[in-house]
Design goal:
heterodimer, A: alpha/beta, Rossmann fold, 6-stranded parallel β-sheet, 37% helix, B: alpha+beta, Alpha-Beta Plaits, 5-stranded antiparallel β-sheet, 4-stranded antiparallel β-sheet, elongated
Chain lengths: 581, 171
């Protein structure tokens, strides 16, 4: 404890003074019984802005969107019981995508814990498998140190979610508050630097390779190491593929950016990764959506694996040269060493080879026939064209086909401008994440690319967007179906479509948007979509563009689950099938 | 192969659950687990046994080490460590076979802690393999009840300077 003057206050005030001390400017939440004292503290005054969500899941995803857009810790607040369980999905999402998140939940009074009291649930127990750590505060004196520790654990080492559960009587009890300068966590010692010998070995391996590639994951963004990554790639002229979570970690119009590997990555990106003789995995984890069949993944490649989390080394793929440490200094060291040991021009034939594949295997889709609904891909091409010259765009997405097209067609040159749910694949992530991103980046134009299925999971947060003056543009790539499920049923279940038809027009998304005080557009042709997007992007208001597209269109290329990455399925003409629209 | 792992952890509410939950979540089966206090009041020690190959063992240790309450994870290598287990066995013992059973117990250093008209309760402390043997020997007589603590272990100071093949010591 520092010797700062102690002030007498209750636990709820201590929570807010702690958040202020952490430099938190914004939290997302929804009040209820067990967290009432803390909301009373909000009412009594704080520098922390509270954004009122319509559902705790929305609050959690907003906090995630805030964290992803800002690189800071996101904070979500909810009451006990159902409020807390509604946070479980965002917590799991943040766990899978290593998003720094502090969740604060109210709990029933200490003397009621264990009695099945009203709105009681063991949220620390429920969330054990999906948090880095959690605390049930049992003494009001513990509040400052616990919040300090919560922010520390969430944001150091491999980032992720933590939970602080505070019984109502603890929020009401009094303490002499002072905020600690240090944390006392004897068991939490994330690596502070990489081993120089390992980094040197990594540099040698890169210099020796004929066909090296940087396989970059979301860890680079969490590590604030995008500048170091760029320097490394340029120093040794290394091609770069970025995973979905790393999209925007490397400028995508850069000549060394070779696309996105994995299930719906372009063929040339997957070939580049799978035919490499050296893979430098940078804050990536050999996810099954990237590798396909692991035994057939990049069989000829030596692996250098750089990660802050030792447990990722060798978890899926053996690392020949592991480097455990924070990526910022590790990448900087590697770039410095390669500046001396890399052989100039050595990677040029390999870069030319990938460029040839790029020419040979472009993204393709079918032409819109007269009478057909608009294809989805042109919507993305329009979005890319409309925003290419702008440097203020931040994208968020839901999960499914639209997300994969967004990955393929939207080019992001600036870090933290593509915010999506990767690991957990949480439908409904897009709208609240966009609101959180807008809160973090008020200067930005935040565009949520959503599916009609996703949108309907969290659409109520349009109210939050409008009333909290956090305007976002939502583009619903509306095919009237759970599109990715439809694609799988079509390809792998002999076209037996089961429980996927949502319809294009119920609800009427434009009217729904208007009901929330937002702008609403319905667009069925290319020109209508173009006009609606232009108006929505220029409006500065919350807007929903319902772009109605052909449900028969599949997202290609595709590595079927469990197949080898090199056996990806490319676009073929859409089958002339009977479809109820 | 079965491995014995010693885990030092902060004596905090839920710390044990976090470890067992991690095993369940990642699909590792715990063969036995013993937990108790240590020389430090704020630190507990778990000795657990898990049946897995080298690679998953490394994963288990790394995943455990990521838990905030976990202070240290060490593999106890057979030969370089002392392992003990306590068992209580209630064995059917009509007066006619009592002497035979008690002689058997003596061989293993098992103590008779209770004696009823038709049953004996033995207490046996020793290397887990001895407990296994004793259990098998008394089983034909009618093993009514058995409880074992699960093994606990310490590295041998006499071997602490020996270079072990793969000690898996993570700070």
């Amino acid at each position: 404890m520092s010797d700062k003057t102690k002030r007498r206050m209750n636990g709820a005030d201590a929570v807010l003074r702690s958040l202020e001390a952490e430099g938190v400017d914004m939290v997302f939440g929804l009040p209820g019984g067990a967290i009432l004292p803390t909301y009373d503290a909000f009412a009594r005054g704080t520098t922390v802005r509270h954004v009122l969500a319509r559902h705790e899941q929305g609050a959690g995803h907003m906090a995630e969107g805030y964290a992803r857009a800002s690189g800071r810790v996101g904070v979500a607040i909810a009451t006990s019981g159902p409020g807390a369980t509604n946070l479980v999905t965002p917590i799991a999402d943040a766990w899978m995508d290593s998003t720094p998140l502090v969740c604060i939940t109210g709990q029933v009074r200490s003397n009621l814990i264990g009695t099945d009291a009203f709105q009681e649930c063991d949220i620390t127990g429920i969330t054990i498998p999906i948090v880095k750590h959690s605390w049930l505060v049992q003494d009001v004196e513990e509040i400052p140190a616990t919040i300090k520790a919560a922010f520390h654990v969430a944001s150091t080492g491999r980032c992720g979610p933590v939970l602080v559960d505070i019984p109502r009587d603890i929020q009401e009890a009094e303490l002499d508050f002072s905020y600690p300068d240090d944390v006392s966590l004897p068991g939490w010692k994330p690596p502070r630097r990489g081993h120089p010998r390992q980094t040197a070995a990594a540099a040698q391996a890169v210099a020796a390779a004929e066909r090296p590639i940087l396989y970059v994951g979301g860890g680079v963004l969490n590590a604030h190491a995008t500048d170091e990554l760029l320097r490394l790639a340029e120093t040794a002229r290394l091609p770069v593929v970025t995973t979905l979570m790393a999209k925007s970690a490397f400028p995508e119009t850069h000549e060394l950016h070779m696309g996105w590997p994995g299930m719906h990555g372009p063929k040339w990106s997957n070939w580049a990764l799978n035919k490499a003789d050296l893979i430098v995995a940078v804050g990536s984890r050999f996810d099954d959506r990237v590798t396909g069949k692991v035994s057939a993944f990049a069989p000829g490649a030596t692996v250098v694996h750089l990660d802050i989390d030792a447990a990722e080394i060798g978890k899926i793929r053996r690392a020949d040269v592991p480097v455990v440490g924070p990526l910022k200094p590790v990448l900087a060291d590697l770039a410095t060493q390669l500046a001396t040991v890399a052989v100039p021009g050595k990677t040029e034939p390999w870069l030319r080879q990938i460029a040839e594949w790029r020419e040979q295997f472009p993204l393709r889709y079918g032409e819109t026939q007269p009478g057909d609904l608009l294809k989805p891909q042109p919507v993305f091409e329009m979005l890319q064209e409309l925003t290419a010259s702008r440097d203020d765009i931040v994208w968020t997405t839901g999960v499914g086909q639209h997300q994969m097209w967004a990955m393929q067609y939207l080019l992001c040159d600036r870090p933290r401008t593509f915010i999506t749910s990767g690991g957990l694949g949480t439908m409904g992530y897009g709208v609240p994440a966009a609101i959180g991103a807008k809160a973090a980046r008020p200067d930005a134009t935040v565009v949520c690319i959503d599916g009609d299925g996703c949108f309907q999971m969290t659409q109520q947060e349009l109210a939050t967007s409008v009333l909290e003056n956090l305007p976002i543009v939502v583009v619903i790539v509306n095919n009237g179906y759970l599109g990715m499920v439809r694609q799988w049923q079509d390809m792998f279940f002999e076209e037996r479509f089961s429980q996927i038809h949502l319809t294009h027009s119920l609800p009427d998304y434009a009217k729904l948007a208007e009901a929330y005080g937002a702008l609403g557009f319905t667009a069925e042709t290319e020109s209508e979509v173009q006009a609606a997007l232009e108006e929505a992007l220029a409006s500065g208001r919350t807007a929903v563009v319902d772009a109605r597209v052909d449900p028969r269109e599949h997202c290609f290329p595709m590595i079927p689950a469990g197949a080898a990455a090199l056996d990806l399925v490319e676009y073929e003409d859409v089958k002339d099938e009977v479809t109820t629209l | 192969m079965i491995h014995t792992i010693a885990v030092l952890l902060e004596n905090k509410p839920g710390a044990l659950t976090r470890i067992t939950s991690m095993f369940a979540r990642r699909g590792y089966n715990i063969e036995s687990l013993a937990v108790g206090p240590t020389e430090r009041h704020d630190v507990s020690r778990i000795t657990l046994r898990v049946d897995c190959a080298e690679q998953p063992l490394e994963q288990i240790e790394k995943q455990m080490h990521k838990l905030v309450n976990v202070l240290r994870v060490t593999e106890l290598v057979p030969g370089d460590s002392i392992e003990r287990e306590l068992a209580l066995l209630r064995v059917s013992a009509q007066p006619s076979v009592r002497a035979e059973l008690m002689a058997l117990g003596e061989v293993f250093g098992a103590r008779v802690v209770d004696l009823g008209p038709d049953a004996i309760v033995f207490e046996l402390t020793g290397p887990p393999e001895d407990v296994d043997s004793f259990e098998e020997l008394v089983r034909p007589h009618g093993l009514q009840e058995l409880v074992r603590t699960g093994r606990i272990g310490l590295n041998r100071p006499s071997r602490s300077t020996t270079k072990r093949p793969k000690p898996h010591v993570l700070v």
